[in-house]
User: Fold this.
Amino acid sequence: MSDSLTARAADVFLAAFGQPPTVKVQAPGRVNLIGEHTDYNDGLVLPCAIGYRTVIVARERDDRLLRVVAADYDDAVDTVSLDAPIERLAAPMWANYVRGVVRELLARESVHGAARGMDLAIAGDVPQGAGLSSSASLSVAVCTLFATQPAFQDLTPIEGALVAQRAENDFVGCKCGNMDQISSACGVADHALMIDCRSLDVRPVPIPEGAAIMIVESHITRGLVDSAYNTRREQCEAAARHFGVSALRDVDLADLQLLGTGLDPVVLQRARHVVSENARVKAAALALAAGDLARMGVLMAESHVSMRDDFEITVPAIDHLVEIIKSAIGEAGGVRMTGGGFGGCVVALVPESLVDAARLAVARDYRAPNGELATVHVCRAAAGAGPVEAASPPRQHLTASPAFH
Ligand code: GLA
Assistant:
């Protein structure tokens, strides 16, 4: 575990509040192996938590005030009263993630004014804007912190994840699905999670021995992400209405062929991505459990093509990055864009013996449109949110590769 992160949060805490923290929690970011834009269609996803995290250190107060400071921003302290309506701020944005979660938590019936005030310092090392869920890790860390209070001890990891999602949906204003928060809350070391985003069933699937998860940051700035994301959601909802179901989870490929005529061609394409992606996640969970990286490679390649051609959320430089890695790993593993799209990261699942070849190929052949080199991280699936102590070595294994800058 990068204890330096906790130490940094503790230093900032001491400087801001004049005494040491007594509680330390963490929540990880995530990378999605397969199952993109399926979560808000009540579908299936196969992500894992990663060793980049948000750490919050805190100390309970005698009153009903929250005072919050973020190590990575300025020294400004955001002060919130638990007895007054909690408002959204124009800035800083990080404060809204905390405020939104707290507001949701206070709305729980069981709380009845029993929440206690706290001082908090936040530090994180999840790359921001890279599609690795830095914001979900912050929101889930706030839930995890409050779950240490008696008033919230009944808050399960899944409930905490849903609180965090609601805060992002309704307070921050991002209409994301529930994958990121559930991955962060429920991660299991060395396992991916097969999440049924409708039933909320979470099934850990072991990552095969000898397989490495490579995360390659393209450094392509994601433009228009929110509006493009929301448009895709609306198109999926329109398709579900056409098929007379509550979500595309209830449509299969045969339905698409039989009943898809009459649907706007672009909406049909979007639906085909979601429906085929759900089928691929099922197949991928089986392939992963069987240690079949070659089959994972086929499914991840199909997923990428579907995101590129049907869902239209990739960009040429990302397609090129995927091709570079594929040419280095051949049939032995898989690679695809991961996350919401339009930039961000590529994920590869490869035998450890091919990591160096993939790394070299990326360093040699890839440049972002602005000339920047990619950053490569080789990691193992991490445990989910919890007390910092419970996440100590050997459960956290993320090794940042020597970055190619
Ligand atoms: C973003 C959202 C998730 C999910 C992915 C796409 O990460 O936050 O809920 O929809 O995009 O799979």
